[in-house]
Structures are given as C-alpha cells and as structure tokens.
Amino acid sequence: MARNKLVLSVQYAVDSNLAPSRKQFREWAHSALDKSINAAEVTLRIVDVDEGRELNAQYRGKDYATNVLTFTFDDSPLVEGMPLYGDLVLCAPVVAKEAQEQGKALDAHYAHLVVHGMLHLQGYDHIEDDEAEEMESLETQIMQQLGFPDPYAKDEA
C-alpha cells in the first residue's frame, strides 16, 4: 500500500540538541496524517519562549508562550485528493517544562504535540466536549501505535 506523501520542513530556532530529530518529527507527523490525504506540506518550527510568546500574542491575543500553535493555509474544509498545507510551531522550553511537570518522557510529549497539531491542521478541534473526546481518542490511538503511552492517562500514584 502506498503511503501518502508528506513534505515536512523542520526549522530549529533553538539549539537542535534540545529537540527531537527531523526523522522523529517526520515519523510522528506522518502517523497523524489521515490516509485520505494524498499529500501534505507542513513546516514545523521549534522556537524559544520569546518567539512563542510573540506568535501567541499576535495570532491568539494571549501574552504567553504556549506548547503548540497550528496555522492552516486557509480555513476551507479539506477536500479529498487536495493537498494539506500548514505550519506547526512548538515552543521548546514550554514543551520541556510540561513534560517534566507531568512526569512524561520528553520525546513522548513532543510526539503528542506533533500529533495534536497535525490533527488540528486536518480540521479536528477540542472546543466542544464531543469534539474533544473524538480528538483525544484519535490522539491516544496514534500515540499507542507509535509505542507511546496514552497522553491523557491519569497517574494513579
């Protein structure tokens, strides 16, 4: 079976040793790409707190750096057979801090945020409870297929 084509450009605006490799990012992004999408072109940028805060303020009106921002090429619904275009921005210090606070492996948290962002690019959202449930279920399934634990599992300890 032919895999859908993903062109992923990874930009490190921070020390690349602080983040996963391009190969890892590509695997995680591809795993979240719906099979009905023939092709996708995505830029993934890893940023510091200053750039993360600036982008979040400019595009969401929030004066803080967040873990992941997703930018779609346009707001049109996806059409089967048409390419998917978009950008993901991950703030390395925020991702690292969250992973530590949540007791998660750093690569697992990065993988989850890439999967999460890729699903947003494809039109998934978590504003309404039913949408959140669907998106979280899909994220969990993809993460487990990648060999990571359920990102939403509550620590029973």
Automatic annotation (TrEMBL):
PANTHER family (UniProt xref): ENDORIBONUCLEASE YBEY, CHLOROPLASTIC (PTHR46986)
What coarse category fits the chief subcellular location reported for this protein?
cytoplasm
Record keyword NAD present: no
* Name used for this protein in its record: Endoribonuclease YbeY
| Function text | Single strand-specific metallo-endoribonuclease involved in late-stage 70S ribosome quality control and in maturation of the 3' terminus of the 16S rRNA.
List its EC numbers: 3.1.-.-
Record bears the keyword Oxidoreductase: no
Q: Which family does it belong to?
A: Belongs to the endoribonuclease YbeY family.
Q: State its cofactor.
A: Zn(2+)
